[in-house]
Known about the structure:
Elements: H1 11-18, H2 22-51, E1 81-83, E2 102-104, H3 105-114, E3 148-150, E4 169-171, H4 172-181, E5 195-196, E6 217-219, E7 238-240, H5 241-250
Antiparallel strand pairs: 1-2, 3-4, 5-6, 6-7
The structure holds zinc ion (3 copies).
Amino acid sequence: AGQKEEGKTTYEDEMEEAGGEGESFHFVWWKGAEQQAEAQEENKESNKSNNSAPAPKSGEGVDRSRCTYEGCARPNESCRFYVITKDTKAGGRDWSSLLGMVICNSCYARFRDRGRLEPPIAAAKPLVHFEKRCTYEGCSRPGESSRFHRITEETTAGGRDWRGLLGRVLCERCYTRYRSAGTLEPAVAPPKRTILAEPGQRCTYDRCLRPCESSRFFRISKETHGGGQDWSRLDGMVLCNACFVRFRNRGTLEPQGGQP
Ligand SMILES: [Zn+2]
Ligand SMILES: [Zn+2]
Ligand SMILES: [Zn+2]
């Protein structure tokens, strides 16, 4: 094989010697750039095949297993697909605008029966089912209501901000309360049967003998039931102990035995 002449270096040797920093770096850079370019080219290729729809298989012609009406709800689900030809005359319709299309059974039937592919206006949304129980923790009767309301993004009743209650179910009472007051808290504390009058108050019975002298005062409310009497006409009155007891026992504020 070839003998090297002394003092002369081959091309390869030159490359090696020049190596280290300069030339070989240059060479490596180019080699890397080349590989990079190749890799990019490959990526492009694979992207292309990933993104684009598969090309129609040659020889098969039209894909007859997919409805080509773009508004079709279930283009792949049909027991049968129809290719529309110029001989298609079902229903006595003019099918010429669909010539060459493949459509599913339901689209076919729709066009045949109605002369158009557009589905009829969608029926009203089915009622959402939800547990009929008020989710307000302070609700007095969460399971009892003539009607329950589920709060959705569309809930705007009363112009209130319902977003804090999104998805919750409210009974009619709580719903109405929030709609009118903007809060679920009951507006009025539950009335107690008998409330002591504030200090300094006096018996409001105008014929009371000692309206300011009493160990106790009673505020009469709708909830007052003492003695089984009908307290409703005294609603809101404050009575001294004597008047309270008198009414409770006799159903009247009139002092017994007339005025002294
Ligand atoms: Zn269809
Ligand atoms: Zn409730
Ligand atoms: Zn009194």
